[in-house]
Amino acid sequence: MKILSRIAVLGLTGALVAACAGMEGDAAKTEAAKPETKAAAKPAEKKTKPDQAFVMYFDFGKSNVDDEAMNAAYQLMANTMSGYKAVLLTGHTDTAGDKAFNRKLSEKRVEETKQVLSEIGIDPARIITQFYGEDEPAEKTGDGVKNAKNRRVEMVLKF
Question: Hey, which bits of the chain come out as E strands?
Fold first, then answer.
């Protein structure tokens, strides 16, 4: 057993000697030997991932999160494993109904979505919310038109 320990120590010592051999001496010796001609190394730029978008759709006049919408929440959660800065939630409605009611409904949808995301592990302090009611439809329609694609909360994962 002692022989194996000595071999390990010798191997480690050899590795340290080899690593140190490539290092320059102290500053005084280095300056006298040769002035540095290499350009200063630039710091590596940190690459960030592009934002990822997910969408939850809602039934007419409703703000509850159904099974299909939960799948979108779980997809978002799975993509946070490598880190994220924030989650932006934006609520929308179709043009059916009163404009003021739709604004409140889009707010309720965002709050329900935020609650669900918090329950599955997203930090609520990193969730940013906004709501537009019927003002920014996914598909433009006339006033008073029910449209399933406009009844949504867009979830954008920011990196």
Answer: 52-57, 86-91, 127-131, 152-158
Q: What is the pLDDT of residues 3-47, one digit of tens each?
A: 443 433 334 334 433 444 444 444 444 344 444 545 555 566 666
Task: Note the maximum CA span of the chain.
Answer: 87
Which among 104, 95, 93 has a CA at the least distance from the CA of 58? 93
| % helix, strand, coil for the chain, step of 5 | 40, 15, 45
Residues of the chain with pLDDT under 70: 1-47
99 forms beta bridges with none
Domain boundaries, the chain: 52-158
CATH class of the 52-158 domain in this structure = alpha beta
Neighbouring C-alpha atoms within 13 Å toward the C-beta of 6: 3
Burial annotation 88-112 (CB, 10 A radius, 16+ → b, else e): bbbbbbbbbbeeeebbebbbbbbbb
